[in-house]
Design brief:
Layout: H1 2-17, E1 25-30, E2 36-39, E3 52-57, E4 64-68, E5 72-81, E6 86-89, E7 95-96, E8 102-106, E9 114-122, H2 123-126, E10 129-135, E11 141-145, E12 148-150, E13 155-161, E14 168-173, E15 181-184, E16 187-188, E17 197-200, E18 206-210, E19 217-226, E20 233-238, E21 241-242, E22 252-254, E23 257-263, E24 268-275, E25 278-279, E26 285-290, E27 294-302, E28 305-312, E29 318-322, E30 336-343, E31 348-353, E32 357-364, H3 372-375, E33 380-383, E34 389-396, E35 401-408, E36 419-420, E37 432-438, E38 445-448, E39 455-459, E40 462-463, E41 472-475, E42 482-487, E43 493-500, E44 507-511, E45 515-516, E46 520-525, E47 529-534, E48 540-544, E49 547-548, E50 557-560, E51 565-571, E52 599-602, E53 605-608
Parallel strand pairs: 1-9, 10-18, 19-27, 28-34, 35-42, 43-51
Antiparallel strand pairs: 1-3, 2-4, 4-8, 5-6, 5-9, 7-8, 10-13, 11-12, 11-14, 14-17, 15-16, 15-18, 19-22, 20-21, 20-23, 23-26, 24-25, 24-27, 28-30, 29-31, 31-33, 32-34, 35-37, 36-38, 38-41, 39-40, 39-42, 43-46, 44-45, 44-47, 47-50, 48-49, 48-51, 52-53
Length: 609
């Protein structure tokens, strides 16, 4: 404490007197600099050292790495503190590089008082002790010293080691079952953490590793107790193959086999599980490696349950799961009333509509009915208590409503181009106009904002705002709506004016293929498509901004909005005698249609132009 206090006061004094503290100098005493390499920054060239005391300017760095060269061991790493004339070993901080070389990272807490003593020795000279490792198949296990592998041969291997720093070895099986037995001086060694066997050796020790399993049968006995325990074991496998005789007397497996148990842990609580008297944990699936006769004891208690009634109009349209869908257990349903047993630990079941179907209504005794929004999800969890009556009415999905979706430059959005229904199913769209059939439960639609491109969404020519989080646009569609999605483009808004010399009873004027227009003015986004389609028997002419346009092959007139447009619709007479007085100052063709070239009529006279 005294030293720390003095250092603290000195530091305060220095900080008050000096603008910056001087760089630290580390003192390192090395017996043979040819045995080590020292660096401050790992990417720098090695420091130049001399035998004996070295004073190393650390600059602004705090760690000095000292590496024992190949074939060299540290025999002494000691910090000498001149403040109280003490010494302390720091050899416990020795680590190994992947190539097996030792290294030590030195940091001085008080460089003005401390120095590091480094003593080394050639590994061949330092390794004065040895132990023998016998192994029948070295391809099945790996011998490691501080995570560095040591080559083995079949049979006897004499391993030399330095007693102070190299006495703890690990034998690592190449897979969990590749070692049958391992003994150290005749005593069994248990597996450690990570399935490794660890042994601390002394001079003259013997380690025996056997990887070959004997060709013998191991008896397996089950002792089951508890409520309805005969129903607890769901399956038993041996080496991945079902064992149907596991509960019969004389059941056995070959030594080295893997016995797998699957239990109904969703319905039963395992009170205790032991393997040859050792307490183990029983999960939904337990795998045991069998190397000797094995006794399994399992005591269970069945979870309490509720019994409810589920009324279903058509079981082909819905699946009922006990608990969560991921649990995978389903109830077999019939039309009408079904009695279900629901575990109290998970007091609910889950309903999932079949493809092309939906849950129209869902009622539970004593609860408010589920709302359409709750039933629109891909699955519905239904909490229950004892004696509840649940009634489900299903229906097939009929998308009898229609909207139009226009998409502009979806490539800019990339993978972010996404339009989904309320049940999270995706809508397939391409650039241009797309007809979108839907039904009420498809709302609300979700359009994802693109991360790498600007995104603008319009519904019936009005902008749709992003949600509060700024990631999605949410839209409820009605029959006849138009949805427009623009990526990396800000569409202009124009005025579209419809004029007619008569009512529009004999023509259909549509914008975006679906929205009817009347005489008057309307807002139109850039790229909007407009059609004038005469009904059967009607003959009309169409001018856009005073210029006649030519009819399509089906007799309709079409235009794309790229500026303010005035669309004028006029009726055509069937012969030149039907030209009325109010058209006398205009030119017409022989059928009475407005024209500017060809054989024309003006005030009843023929004009050739």
């Amino acid at each position: 404490m005294k030293k720390i206090l003095l250092f603290f006061i000195a530091a305060l004094t220095l900080s008050a007197l000096c603008p910056a503290a001087s760089a630290a100098v580390y003192r390192v005493d090395i017996d043979d600099v040819s045995n080590v390499t020292a660096v401050i920054n790992l990417d720098d060239d090695p420091l130049t050292l001399q035998n004996g005391l070295n004073e190393i300017d650390m600059g602004d760095q705090q760690w000095l790495r000292i590496i024992a060269n190949d074939g060299v061991l540290f025999t002494d790493l000691t910090v000498i503190d001149s403040y109280d004339n003490s010494e302390r070993s720091v050899a416990g901080g020795i680590q190994n590089l992947p190539d097996g070389r030792m290294y030590f990272d030195f940091r001085a807490s008080f460089p003005e008082d401390e120095s590091l003593r480094v003593r080394t020795q050639a590994a061949a000279d330092a390794r004065t002790a040895s132990f023998t490792l016998n192994i029948d198949n070295p391809a099945k296990a790996d011998l490691q010293l501080k995570d560095v592998s040591i080559p083995l041969t079949q049979g006897s291997n004499v391993i030399k080691f330095e007693p102070a720093s190299e006495s703890v070895y690990e034998i690592v099986p190449l897979d969990y079952y590749s070692i049958y037995s391992l003994t150290h001086n005749g005593q069994p060694v248990d597996r450690g953490e990570g399935y490794r066997y660890q042994v601390k050796v002394a001079d003259g020790d013997v380690v025996d590793v056997v990887t070959t399993y004997p060709d013998v049968d191991c008896a397996i006995s089950f002792s089951l107790s508890g409520d309805d325990v005969d129903d607890f074991i769901r399956e038993v496998d041996v080496n991945g193959r079902p064992a149907t005789d596991w509960n019969k007397p004389g059941f056995s497996v070959k030594c080295g086999s893997v016995l797998t148990l699957r239990g109904r842990t969703d319905e039963y609580e395992v009170m205790s599980f032991t393997v040859n008297g050792a307490v183990e944990t029983f999960s939904a699936e337990v795998s045991l490696f069998i190397a000797k006769d094995t006794e399994l004891k399992i005591d269970v208690r069945k979870y309490a349950s509720y019994k409810i009634t589920l009324n279903v109009d058509d079981p082909a349209r819905v699946t009922a799961y006990r608990g969560y869908i991921n649990d995978g257990e389903t109830f077999e349903l019939q039309a009408g009333a079904n009695t279900l047993e629901i575990l109290r630990k998970n007091p609910f079941f889950t309903l999932k509509p079949a493809e092309g179907c939906y849950i129209k209504t869902l009622t539970v005794t004593g609860q408010e009915d589920f709302t359409p929004d709750e039933l629109t999800k891909s699955s519905v969890q239904v909490p229950v208590v004892d004696d509840d009556v649940v009634t489900v009415v299903t229906a097939e999905i009929v998308r009898d409503q229609k909207a139009m979706v226009y998409v502009h430059n979806s490539k800019s959005a990339g993978e972010d181009f996404s339009v989904k229904r309320a049940d999270n199913s995706a809508v397939s769209l391409t650039d241009g106009y797309n007809e979108l059939p839907f039904y009420d439960r498809d709302n609300t639609f979700v359009i994802t904002k693109a991360l790498e491109a600007s995104t603008a969404v319009y519904q019936n020519e009005e902008p749709v705002e992003l949600d509060f989080a700024g990631y999605n646009f949410y839209v409820d569609l009605w029959h006849g709506d138009v949805l427009k999605i623009f990526y990396d483009y800000a569409p202009k808004t124009y005025q579209l004016t419809i004029e007619s010399d008569d009512e529009l009873s004999d023509v259909d004027v549509l914008m975006d293929h679906i929205r009817p227009l009347a005489v008057g003015q309307a807002k139109a986004l850039e790229f909007s498509h407009v059609t004038v389609a005469p009904k059967a028997g009607a003959q009309v002419g169409v001018e856009v901004n005073g210029e006649p346009i030519v009819a399509e092959s089906d007799g309709s007139f079409a235009l794309t909005v790229d500026a303010d447009k005035t669309v004028k619709i006029t009726r055509e007479e069937s012969s030149m005698t039907e030209i009325s007085a109010d058209k006398a100052q205009r030119a017409y063709d022989l059928l009475g249609r407005p024209a500017s070239k060809g054989l024309l009529i003006l005030q009843g006279k023929k004009i050739v132009k």
